[in-house]
């Protein structure tokens, strides 16, 4: 194997070149541009090259920013908790309770199909269910549980979290399922033989061995929620704001330097959280 | 684990609820898009008709939906082909360690993890500073690649991890050139997985919204059109568009699955 590989080692450079080029042009340079523009000045008509700290100063001293961060972390934390609970249970069911691998594949694919269709459509599809005259409200009213429609169902924090769970649980299921499939079933058998209860098996064998999947899934869900503005805009009905919404609003008002400063702070926040999470797992070993 | 325990039934029930949760809302809007002309956004149905689908294609009703669809399909195809070729090449490159390989790997990972709005803002600003007009086929194309290529690369990693290099060695031993080995051994064996990469590339681009926001220029792609509609359209025409685009996505998935099966069958036949 090594002889074949060494002979063609030079090839790696040109083979990886197109990918590298795209990433430099459309990832590295744009982020550098954001970094530079975040120090620029602006007025109603244009952005002006300069070196000022006003954008950051305004951002970090504004209570709106801090509230938005608080809200963003609240969304991220709640979503993480729910997707983890649901994702782990689903992955556990598929990995340990479905016996034939064909059936496992079919059921897993069943979960992945919605991921391949538009997020926006999946969000608006909650309207007929959660709206004022939606299925949930009319259902509850007809059985007499409530006499007024519940207003908190749509355009609320509840709706936002629900949409996140709907959109992102798959990002939890996939890595956890992946690491569970590598657990040697004889370990579980051994634990049973040694007299472990089902709960002990879960706590001492399965959860530790699927830790890497749990962390990778958490990384995905966390970063997706931190940077999201579409869900908050559509499901929050335009009255809720998280960090990305602030950036989005500044973009709409053409206040690019302010948006850029917001984006840099968001980037730094996400990277700090990721550094903590990556400490817990060697992602390259897991692939 | 030999006998079905009560735990199995509880978990199976949970799984079924999860699937219902995933599909239920989408099925609901699919049904509601067949409302009669007098129908609204919720049940009860006011008769059934194709009225809202016809409205969709009547140009003045909801912006230029047809042109947006064509643009999204073209962009999706461009992104699909590029993702396929670049991910395959990069996947082959990563079979061995080379200088800078981990830098490229972490860049790809960053591309996946960095919030989409940052990519969108950055590329938009970069084009603005270089005095280039953002277009869906230039800046939009690039921004979509930052989303699809990392996915393609990760799939290629998974594929090559399970790939047995003995076939290639045998081919080389028999005197095949590198190109022949690639063309007649590697490519046919990888074909089913490559179709998967293509499917991911196309659908991710076709549905991408956040990265297109500042990079599509003056012409909307379909998700942008949809997003605009969510704020100003309050008729089931919204659902009709949702149903239609979901059908396109489902058709892509089905075609891919069928192609993969056909490929697998022809492979086992020739082997």
TrEMBL record, chain A:
Species annotation: Gynuella sunshinyii YC6258
Record-linked PROSITE patterns: ABC_TM1
Gene3D superfamilies (alphabetical): MetI-like
Alphabetized InterPro entries for the sequence: MetI-like (IPR000515), MetI-like_sf (IPR035906)
GO CC annotation terms, alphabetical: plasma membrane
Protein known as: ABC-type spermidine/putrescine transport system, permease component I
Family as reported in the entry's similarity comment: Belongs to the binding-protein-dependent transport system permease family. CysTW subfamily.
Broad class of the protein's primary localization: membrane
Segments forming domain ABC transmembrane type-1: 69-277
Membrane topology per record: Multi-pass membrane protein
Domain of life from the UniProt record: Bacteria
Pfam families the record matches: BPD_transp_1
Segments traversing the membrane: 20-40, 75-94, 106-127, 152-173, 213-236, 256-281
Keywords assigned by UniProt, alphabetized: Cell membrane, Membrane, Transmembrane, Transmembrane helix, Transport
Compartments in which it is found: Cell membrane
Protein's GO biological process: transmembrane transport
Automatic annotation (TrEMBL), chain B:
PROSITE patterns per record: ABC_TM1
GO BP terms: transmembrane transport
A single cellular component GO annotation: plasma membrane
Name recorded for this polypeptide: ABC-type spermidine/putrescine transport system, permease component II
Family membership noted in the UniProt record: Belongs to the binding-protein-dependent transport system permease family. CysTW subfamily.
Subcellular location: Cell membrane
Chain ranges passing through the membrane: 7-34, 73-91, 103-127, 147-163, 184-206, 237-263
Matching InterPro entries: Bact_Polyamine_Transport, MetI-like, MetI-like_sf
UniProt entry keywords in alphabetical sequence: Cell membrane, Membrane, Transmembrane, Transmembrane helix, Transport
Domain ABC transmembrane type-1, chain residue ranges per copy: 69-256
Membrane topology qualifier: Multi-pass membrane protein
Record-linked SUPFAM superfamilies: MetI-like
Organism of derivation: Gynuella sunshinyii YC6258
């Amino acid at each position: 194997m090594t002889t074949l590989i060494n002979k063609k080692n030079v090839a790696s450079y040109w083979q990886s070149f197109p990918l590298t080029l795209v990433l430099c042009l459309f990832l590295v340079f744009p982020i550098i541009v954001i970094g530079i523009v975040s120090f620029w000045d602006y007025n109603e008509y244009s952005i002006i090259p300069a070196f000022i700290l006003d954008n950051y100063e305004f951002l970090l001293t504004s209570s709106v920013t801090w509230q938005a961060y608080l809200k963003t972390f609240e969304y991220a934390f709640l979503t993480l908790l729910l997707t983890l609970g649901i994702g782990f249970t689903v992955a556990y069911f598929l990995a340990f309770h479905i016996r034939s691998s064909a059936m496992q594949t079919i059921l897993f694919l069943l979960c992945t199909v919605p991921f391949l269709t538009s997020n926006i459509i999946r969000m608006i599809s909650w309207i007929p269910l959660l709206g004022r005259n939606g299925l949930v409200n009319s259902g509850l009213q007809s059985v007499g549980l409530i006499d007024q429609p519940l207003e908190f169902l749509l355009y609320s924090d509840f709706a936002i979290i629900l949409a996140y769970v709907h959109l992102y649980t798959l990002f939890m299921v996939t890595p956890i399922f992946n690491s569970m499939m590598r657990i040697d079933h004889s370990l579980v058998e051994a634990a049973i033989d040694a007299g472990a209860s089902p709960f002990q098996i879960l706590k001492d064998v399965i959860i530790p061995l699927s830790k890497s999947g749990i962390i990778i899934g958490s990384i995905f869900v966390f970063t997706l929620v931190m940077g999201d503005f579409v869900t908050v805009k559509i499901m929050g009905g335009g009255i809720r704001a998280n960090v990305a919404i602030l950036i989005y609003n500044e973009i709409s008002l053409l206040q690019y330097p302010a948006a850029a400063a917001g984006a840099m702070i968001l980037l730094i926040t996400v990277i700090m959280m990721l550094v903590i999470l990556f400490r817990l797992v060697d992602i390259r070993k897991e692939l | 684990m030999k006998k079905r325990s009560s735990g199995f039934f509880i978990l199976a029930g949970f799984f079924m609820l999860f699937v219902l949760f995933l599909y239920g809302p989408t099925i609901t809007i699919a049904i509601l898009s067949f409302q009669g002309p007098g129908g609204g956004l919720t049940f009860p149905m006011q008769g059934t008709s194709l009225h809202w689908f016809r409205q969709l294609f009547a140009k003045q009703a909801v912006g230029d939906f047809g042109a947006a669809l064509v643009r999204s399909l073209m962009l999706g195809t461009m992104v699909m082909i590029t993702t396929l070729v670049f991910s395959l090449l990069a996947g082959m490159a990563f079979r061995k360690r080379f200088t800078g390989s981990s830098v490229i790997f972490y860049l790809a990972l960053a591309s996946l993890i960095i919030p989409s709005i940052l990519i969108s803002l950055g590329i938009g600003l970069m084009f603005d500073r270089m005095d280039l007009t953002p277009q869906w086929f230039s800046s939009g194309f690039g921004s979509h690649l930052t989303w699809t290529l990392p996915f393609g690369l990760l799939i290629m990693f998974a594929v090559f991890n399970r790939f047995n290099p003995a076939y290639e060695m045998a081919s080389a031993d028999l005197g095949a050139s590198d190109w022949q080995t690639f063309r007649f051994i590697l490519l046919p064996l990888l074909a089913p997985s490559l179709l998967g990469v293509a499917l991911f590339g196309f659908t991710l681009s076709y549905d991408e919204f956040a990265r297109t926001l500042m990079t599509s220029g003056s012409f909307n792609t379909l998700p942008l059109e949809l997003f605009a509609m969510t704020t100003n359209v309050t008729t089931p025409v919204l659902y009709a568009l949702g149903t239609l685009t979901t059908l396109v996505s489902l058709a892509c998935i089905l075609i891919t699955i069928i192609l993969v099966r056909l490929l697998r069958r022809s492979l086992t036949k020739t082997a």
